[in-house]
Every structure is written in structure tokens, then in C-alpha cells.
Amino acid sequence: MIYADNAATTRMCDAAITTMTKLMREVWGNPSSLYTHGQNAKEALEEARGEIAGVIGAKPGEVYFTSGGSEADNQAILTAAKIGERKEKKHIISTAFEHHAVLHTLARLEKEGFEVTLLDVHENGLVSPDEVEAAIRDDTCLVTVMYANNEIGTIQPIREIGEVCRRRNVIFHTDAVQAVGHVRIDVEADNIDMLSASGHKFNGPKGVGFLYARKGIALSNLIEGGAQERGKRAGTENVPAIAAMAAALREKNERIDETVAHVTATRDRLIDGLSKIPHSVLNGDAHKRLPGNVNFCFEGIEGESLLLLLDDRGIQASSGSACTSGSLDPSHVLLAIGRVHDVAHGSLRLSIDEETSDDDVDYIVKNVAEVVEYLRGFSPVWRDLQAGKREFVL
Ligand SMILES: *Cc1c(COP(=O)(O)O)cnc(C)c1O
Fold first, then answer.
1. Full-prediction pTM beyond 0.90?
2. Ligand 1-lining residues (CB < 6 angstroms)
3. Residues tagged active-site
4. DSSP string of 256-280?
């Protein structure tokens, strides 16, 4: 089996599993308890916080644990909205291809009287810092732009966008769920005020993540209760999962440069191979993209059928976001980069990792080419294209 859906979730690494089971057995006290067993848990919690802060260039006091990326996105955006509201600033800038954890939170704020500007992401899947600047108004309280897109993998000019926001005195949040652990991130150098991350996207456990919030940003609570997480996120901390997330991130970070170089080379081999399939296109910029992300559209076929047939051949992939699968609408990300509906339906996302070998790549290329040809053989759309009744787009 070739697993090529690491953008949906990753397998937990041994370091994370070992840490998690050890803490579940040995350090299961409540970190808020004052006796030794509780304090041992508290120590493990703070060690994890320090480790994670170190990897992203933050201070430990700026890292808040959450239940995952979605919660961190919600809390960051609602925090900036609350801060803005107090100053009568109710305008937010984002992009058309954010994750739904961001888009749906923004939709909720729109119902509460906020105005949202969604920036164009262009055909290459990149936001322009100049366009961010042009969209900023006197009443803008937040710019939220994802670090790397979860479907097409494009990496945004975060440092430049952050620089614009800093100069114009607007809070800058980035959903970095796809980027943390996969590319080097430094919240200081990148001018980031708030950042969301999720353990299960970098070989840690599911159901745990973190929010970085620069010192001075007073977080609004999503969950009220006890004084955990400096009063900003109530609920007894999931210490084993948090420590496992930190262990996974430490391990990713220790060999990040080698991994980036190796996975990028494998990815480019995959892109080269798939590009030879007629009437296909790579979605998103070829270079400014995550090391492990490959996303193609093939004209004249349905992505869903492609996935099922690839599954039969032992290849686990996706047509885009795991969150929209099962829905008949084409991906909002592919529509945002200007793909027409018919083409957007024929998408394939392969998100590989350091375990993907060149042999795996060759197997994937051979099988995708065969299955695309097979599906085109009985596609009415393909027949019309061949007969000249429709124009090829790709
Ligand atoms: C997976 C993902 C999320 C959601 O993270 P969860 O931990 O699953 O809640 C948010 N944003 C992006 C870009 C993602 O890829």
C-alpha cells in the first residue's frame, strides 16, 4: 500500500507513540494538582510547551494548547474580531482558498456585522503582498492568510505579508497547519502575530494542536471553565498527546533540511511523470509549494472514480480536501485558482512524505496514467472533447 494522503493526516511516528504510551502509563496525574504526581504532569506539559516554542521561534508563554488546528483557527480569528470590535474596526482580510475552519468562522462573523474581503489567489495559487496592502483599510482588524494551502500546497509570501501588516498595524494570523514540521518557520522573522498548528499533520496524535499568540494579544476564550492555559483554554490538558505532539515536532525539526531536500526531489519526479499525461495540469506554482504536495487536474474524468480505482491498485490519495469529500461541489480551492467546474472535478492530490520511494513514484505514475486513460474511455465528456463538440480547456 502506498499512502499518499499525508495532507489529510499522517501516521504517528515511533517517538510520538512511545512518549504518549509512556505518559499514559506513568504520568497520568492532573497537571493542576499540587502533589508530586500532578506536578510531574505539569512538568511534562511545560517541557512540551518549551520545545514547541523553540521550534517556531516563540517564547513558551506564547504557546497555547488546543484540540487541534480547527480550534486554534477559531480562537485566533474570534480573538482578533473581539479586539477589533472594541475599536469599531470590523473589517477582515483573508483569501478565497482558506481551510473551512477559517472560512466558516469568517462567515459567522459576517452574520455578526463584520465585513470580509477575500483576496484573489491567482492561477498560481499565491496571494500578493501588494494586494494585501491595497485591501487594508482604517477599520481592518485582521489579516488571516494560510501559510501553505492544504489542497494545492502553495506556500504564501508570509514574511512579506506579515511585514505589510506590521507596518499598517493590523494583526496577522496564519493557519500554518500544513506547514509546521514540514518547512522552517520562525514567527519572529516571519512577522506573525498568531499561528495555528495541528499535531496529526506532522506525525503527532489527532485531537491536539496549538495556537501561538504573540505576547500582548489577549486571547478570547472559546471554552470557559478552569484556569488551564493561563485562563485562555479551560479543560484538563491532554498531557500524553501534548507531549507526543512535541516529540513528533522535535523529530521532524531535527532533520527538516534533509527531509525537505529529499521529499522535494521525489515530488518533482512525480510531477514530471504525471505531466506527461495528455490534457493534464499541475495545480499551483511548481516551486513555491510544500515539499510533499502534488495536485493535478485531468480533463474529461471524475476525480472520485479515479480515487476508487487507484485504491484498488493500492494507492491511497485524495481529490482535494478530506473535509469536502462526499460532497458533489468541486473544490473551492480549485475554483479559486480559476479552474472551471468540469476540470476541477477531475482533480487528484497526492501528498507524499520521506518514506515515498522512487519506485513508489513510478508505480503511481504508471497507474494514474492507465486509470485516467481507462476512465476517459467511457467518459461522455471525453467523447465530446474528442469529437470536437466541446473545446479542450487543458
Ligand atoms: C487539517 C487542517 C486544519 C484542521 O486541523 P484539525 O487539527 O484537523 O482540526 C486546518 N487548516 C488546515 C490548513 C488543515 O490542513
1. yes
2. 68-70, 73, 99, 101, 146, 150, 175, 177-178, 198, 201, 209
3. 323
4. HHHHHHHHHHHHHHHHHHHHTSSSE
